[in-house]
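Subject: mismatched residue count in predicted assembly?

I count 661 residues in my input, but I want to confirm that the predicted structure covers every chain. Input:
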Amino acid sequence: MSMISRRTFMMAATAMGALALAGSVAYAELPALAKKDTYKVGFAQTESNNPWRIAQTESMKAEAAKLGYQLVYTDAAGSAAKQVADVNSMIAQGVDVIFLAPREEKPLIPAVMAAKKAGIPVVLLDRNVDQSLAKAGEDYVTFIGSDFIDEGKRVAEWLAKNANGKSKIIELEGTTGSSPANDRKKGFDEAITAAGGFEIVASQTGDFARDKGRQVAEALLQAHPDADIVYAHNDEMAIGAIAAIEAAGKVPGKDILVLSIDGGKEAVQAVVDGKIAAVVECNPRFGPKAFETMARFAAGEKIEPWVINTDKFYDASNAAAELSSAY
Amino acid sequence: MTTIETSSPPAVRSSRVNAAKLLSRYGTFAAFIALLIFNLIVTPNFVSWQTLNVNLTQVATIVIVAVGMTLVIATGGIDLSVGSLMAIAGAAAPMIFMGQLLPIENMGILIILSFILPILLVMAFGWFNGFLVTRFSIQPIVATLVLFIAGRGLAQVATNGNLQVFKNPDFQFIAMGRIAGIPAQVVVMIIVAILAHCLIRYTVIGRQIIAVGGNEKAARLTGIPVRRVKTFVYVISGALAGLAGLIVVARNSASDANLVGLGMELDAIAAVAVGGSLLTGGRANILGTVLGAFVIQLVRYTLLANGVPDAAALIVKAGLIIVAVFIQQRADKA
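Triage response: the counts match. Full output below for your records.
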C-alpha cells in the first residue's frame, strides 16, 4: 500500500513539475524597460583581481555617474555561486536593469532566469551564457562583447601590410578550448592564409600565462631559428615571448616581430619601447556601449543578439599618445 | 632430473631478478639516452648550446623542488604544498623589495631580505606541515593538502590576486644572471642537488631519513628522533620550494599568485617516481630524481619542438610514470 501511495505521490509531483515547466515555457517574453529620466541599475561583476576587470568596473561606474543613474555594484570575487546570490539581491532591491558579466556559461543561467521572472531585463557583458539554455531577445536582452575572431583578423591584416619581408610565424595559443583562444586563432589563421606568403611554422598553447608562454616560446624559437614573427593570443604570453627572444640573443621588434592581443598598459608600454610591434586591444570600457544599448532597449528598439564592443589598435604610430588611456 | 628441477627455477628467477634490478637501476638513464638519440635524429637544431641552455634553465626549478620532495618521500611522506609555497615566496619577495612591507630605504638590505624572509616564511609553513604530520599523525597527503589549498589562497589574499610587475636586476640575478657563463639558476640547481646527495650519503640525519622511511617503528626503537627527522624534511622541502618560487618570479619579472608553481607538486612527484625512489619511502635517489626531471623536461621539449600539442605531452608524461613505477615494483618483488 505504502509503495503505491509513494508512487502516486511521485507521479503527482512529476506532473506538477511538468506543469510548472510548461508554465515557465509559456512565460517566454522578454521583460520590457519603461522610459524614465533616471534608473537604478545593477552591475554584477565577476571578479576584480586584474587591470582589465578594474577598467571595466571603472567604465561602468563613470558612465552611470555621467548619466546620473544609481548603480548597484557587486563583485562575485571569482565565485559563480556568489554571483547568483548577487543577482538575487539586486532583484530584491528592485533594480530596473541588470548588467551581468557572467562568471561561467551554465551556472549563471538560474540568475538570468530569476531576473526574467522578476520582470527585470538582463544585459550580458563580455562573456555569454549557454545558448542552449538561454537566448538573447528571449531570456536576456543581448550580449555585449568583443569580436575575438575580428581581433585575430586585425593582427593578421596589420602583419600583411607591415611584415617587411618577415614571414615565418610562431603562434602562442591561449588555453586549449577556451573561446578567445579558438576565435583568435581562427581569425588570424584564416586572414594570414588569405594574405599569402606567410607560414605558421609552429602553433602551441601557452595557457594565456607568462611563464608557460615564455617556456614554450623558448623551445619553439630553438626548434625554429628561422622564425621571425611571434603572434601571442594575449599580452602575458607576448611578454613571456619577449623574455624568451632576449634570452635567445635576438632583439624583439628588430629580429622578431611580436604581436599581441589585449592591450594592457604593460603591453602598450612595450609597443612604445619597440618590443611589441602591434597589439589589438580587447576593450574593457563597456560603460558607453552598455548604457547606450539600454537606452535603445528602453526606446523599444529591437536589439541584435550580439552588440559588438569595438576594440582599439596600438602600434608605433599611436602607442605613445594612447599610453595614458590604456588600462 | 631432480637436480635440474630444483636448480633451474632459481636460476631462471635470479636472471629475471637481475634484468629487473638492472632496469630499475639504469632504466631512467637508458630512457634519457634514448630521448637524446631520438632528438639528435629527429628534432631540428637540437645540437646547440642554446638548446642545452633552454632545457637546463627550464628544468632547474623542477629539480630544486623535486630534491626536497625526494627527501620527504624517503621518509614515507609526500608534500603536496610545494606549488602553493612557491606562490607564497614568489608573492612575498616583490612586496619586500618594492618596499611595501618594510620601512627600509636601503635597497641592498631590501634585496637580501627579499631572499631570506620569503624562504624563512615558507620554512615556517614547511614546519607546520611537519607539525601536522608528526603531532597529530595526520597522513602526509592530507596534512600537506591543507597548505596546498590554503597556501595559494594566502598568496592571493596578500597580493589581492593582482599581478606584481617589477624590474630589479639585483633580485633577478638568481634567474637572469650568469656565474662563470652558467645561468645562475642552473648553478643553484647543481648546488642543491649535490648538497642533498651528500646529506643522504654522508650525514647522520640522511641515514636517519632513510631509516624512518624504511621502518618507522624500528627506527623509533633504535632511538632515532622520528618526529624531528620528519619535521626536518618538510622544512627543507618548504625552503627549496620557496627558492624555486623566487627563481620563477625573477625569471618572469612578474609574480602572479594564481599561477606561480601551479601543478609543480605533480611535476616534482613525477620526477621522483621516474627517478627510481620508492614512493613508499626508505630510499632516496637524488641523482635519479635529477635524471627523472631531465627526462620529463626532455619529453616536453621534444614534443613541443616537433609540433605535438601540449595535451599529448601530458599523456606521454603519465605513461612514463606508469612505466617507471611498474619497473620498480617488478624489481622489488623479485
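The CA atoms of residues 75 and 209 of chain B lie 6 Å apart. Marking this ticket as 'not a bug'.
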